[in-house]
Design brief:
Bact_Transport_Assoc; disordered C terminus; 5 helices; mainly alpha; DUF418 domain-containing protein; DUF418; single chain; transmembrane helix; transmembrane
């Protein structure tokens, strides 16, 4: 094969190979146990992260944007992320939804749903959630 074709194939295959390696490492490391709770309340984490960084870095809060070096910003971001992983795990053990997810469900369905993890019920009013799908007559 000509060198140009080999280089082109390598250029196209490299990102796929990297994604495969990353997926394998995540699969073997049981990353779902670490990142799963944060993923279940992703909207709450996103809003929380935005509020925390706005308070830390903008003039509305401490105004650290110009005062902290790049490496300091990375350390702060990592600290926020690790804290959110821990808080997410704690929260999802006690509640079915994050605060933002609960608010969105309440507004969407028009019914105030309990957010506690031990609460019986479904995702939708009237029993339309996964838990009762087999019990509902069609």
């Amino acid at each position: 094969m000509p060198d140009g074709v080999v280089d082109g194939v390598a250029l196209l295959a490299s990102p796929l190979l990297a994604a495969g390696y990353a997926a394998t490492v995540l699969r073997l490391s049981r990353a779902d146990a670490w990142f799963g709770p944060a993923g279940r309340i992703a909207a709450s984490n996103y809003i929380g992260q935005s509020l925390i960084t706005a308070i830390l870095f903008t003039g509305l809060g401490f105004g650290l944007a110009e005062k902290v070096p790049v490496w300091g910003t990375l350390v702060i971001a990592l600290a926020i992320y690790v804290t959110q992983l821990a808080v997410s795990a704690w929260w999802t053990r006690r509640h079915r939804y994050g605060p933002v997810e609960w608010l969105l469900r309440t507004v969407t369905y028009g019914v105030r749903r309990p957010s506690s993890a031990g609460t019986a019920g479904t995702d939708r009013p009237g029993g339309g959630g996964r838990e009762s799908a087999s019990a509902q007559p069609r």
